[in-house]
Fold:
Amino acid sequence: MAVKTILVSQPKPEGKRSPYFDLADKYKLKIDFRSFIHVEGIDAQEFRTQKIDLKDYSAVIMTSKNAVDHYFRIAEEMRFEVPDSMKYFCISEAIAYYLQKYVAYRKRKIFFGKQTIEDLVDVLKKHKKETFLLPCTDRLRDKIPLTLEEYKLNFKKAILYRTVASDLSDLENVYYDMLVFYSPGGVESLLKNFPDFKQNKTIIAAFGPTTAKAIVDNKLRLDLHAPQPNAPSMTGAIENYVKNDK
Structure:
């Protein structure tokens, strides 16, 4: 079956440049984007059940823009004025710059890694005396806290937001040749919205091992998986599939 229509379970890329747009033009594909999951913040009452006092922490580890947003949101709801002395350790430079939305960047102690928690460890080890707060989702990857524990850093997880399934009911009678997933949550959302979903000839693509596992665990057929040696990106894997399919 030739692939002509693709639904990517993520928000549409911002701006005019994206490998997906190039792919659509090159192979005359109809590629739509739709976030299958979204983030909801927990309220102050639920936060209190975690018995965390924000003033007990001298540093914050930021692993995403969502973590930044919800840390400052919950601080405001708890009437906690974040002190100027607070240190911020960000998993990437992009997240560090995102802090400008809330703090005067040049006047703060902000550190960042390249892209992973391992990249940040060397900086964190130099500040072992700090008490770290780790704002996170209810689906935080184990690798992050396990890495912090491995280096005996004094930290506490604070669940400030959760990932939930989006309402996809408007897609009930819409069919695509290919569905592309980037997270286990996206797969779970599909099946929560459509418990009687039948894959039939629909091609299912997954990025990353945990997403691929979620597809197989839910007894769906995994047709396309990235990254691979010949296709490190999802769009590269799709292009290889489309080329071979013609």
The chain has nine helices and eleven strands. The chain has a mean pLDDT of 93. Residues 13 and 197 are 27 Å apart (CA to CA).
